[in-house]
Amino acid sequence: xxxxxxxxxxxxxKLKEVAERYESDVLSPERLDDPDFVKRYIVDRCExxxxxxxxxxDLKKEYETLTSYLTDIQLIETMxxxxxxxxxxISNNIVNLxxxxxxxxxxxxKIPDSKYNELDNMxxxxxxAIERMRENEKTxxxxxxxMEYLDGEKIEWSYEKxxxxxxxxxxxxxxxxxxxxxxxxxxxxxxxMNLYGGExxxxxxxxxxxxxxxxxxxLWRMQNNKRDILQCNVNYxxxxxxxxxxxLKYVNITNAVDYAHDKFNTKSSYELEADWQKYLEAKKERExxxxxxxxxxxxRNEMIELLRSYNLYDAAVWPYQVEALLDPKEMVxxxxxxxxxxxxxxxxxxxxxxxxxxxxxxxxxxxxEKNVLNSxxxxxxxxxxxxTGDIA
Length: 392
Hints:
The protein has about 400 residues and is mainly alpha-helical. Among the domains are: about 35-65 and about 335-390; about 125-265, Helix Hairpins, CATH 1.10.287.620. Helices cover about 85% and strands about 0% of the residues. Helix 3 runs parallel beside helix 12 and helix 5 (about 115-120) packs across helix 8. Mean pLDDT is about 80; it is low at about 20-25.
C-alpha cells in the first residue's frame, strides 16, 4: 500500500513536470482574456510557422532535385543508339580502369577500402587520437593493476586481522589457565608456609613468579594485538577508500577508451597506428596512381561531355555510378531509391503544408478577434507566403 502511495506521488510529479513543459501551448478560455499571454502565444506560433515554411522551402528544392535526377535517368534511357553505345563503351573503360587501379592498390598496400575510407574521413583527428588513446590505455592498465593490488591488500589485511583474532582467542585461554595456576600456587604457598615454614616453599613461589611473568607477557601481547587489529581495520578501510576512488576513475577512463575504440573501429591504439601507417602509404600510392592515370580522367570527362549534350541536370555524378549505366537492374535500383526518397519528401511536405495552413488560420483568427499584433502578424504571414510560394 505504501509503495502504491509513493508511486502515485511520483506519477503526479511527473505529470506536473510534463504539464509545465507544455503549459504555454494550452489556450484556455481564461488565458484568452490575458492580452500578454495572447501576444506571446501568437508570436510563438508565428515563429513556428516561419520555421515550418523555411523547412518546406528546403524540401521543395530537394523534391525538385530528386525529380531532376529521375528526369536524367529518363534522358539516358532514351538516348540515341549511337550515343548510348558510346556511353556503354566509356562506362566499360571506366570500370576496367577502376578495377585495374584497385588491383594495383591491393598489391601495393594491404588495407581494405572500407578502412581506408573510414580513416580518410577522419584523417584530421587520427594522429592526435592515437596519442590520446595510447595515453588512456596506459592509464587504464595502471588503474587495473592498482585495483588488483588493492584487492590483494584488502585480502591481506582481512587475513591478518583474522589471524590476530585467532591468536587473541588462544592467548585468552592461556591467560585463564595461568591465572588458575598462579591462584593455585599462591594457595599451596600459604598452606606450605603454615605447615613447614619458609624453607620448603621456594619452588612453589618460583612457579607463581614465573607464571605471573608469563601472564604479564600474554597481557602485553594481547594489548599489542588490539592495536594491530585497529591498524588492520584502518589499513583495510584505507584500501577500500582508495579502491573506490580508483574504480570511479577507471570507469571514466574505460568509457573514454571504449568510445575511442568504437569511433575509430579499432581494438587498440597500436592497431589504429598500424592502420594509420598503411593508410598514409596507401594514400601516397593512390595519389601517384591518380596522377598517372590520365586515361581514367579522360573517359570521365568524355562521359560528362556526352551527357551534357543531352542537358542533364547533373552529368558529373554518372562517372561514379557507371554500374547503373551498364546493368539495367542497377539502374532500376537507383531509380527506385530516388522515387522512395521523393515520396518521403512529398509526405513531409504535405505534413508541413497542413501545419502552416492550420497555424496561419489560428494566428489570423486570434489576432483579428483580440486585435493584437495585427501589422506584425500580417508581415510574418506575407513572409511565410513568400517562402512557401504556391506550396501551401
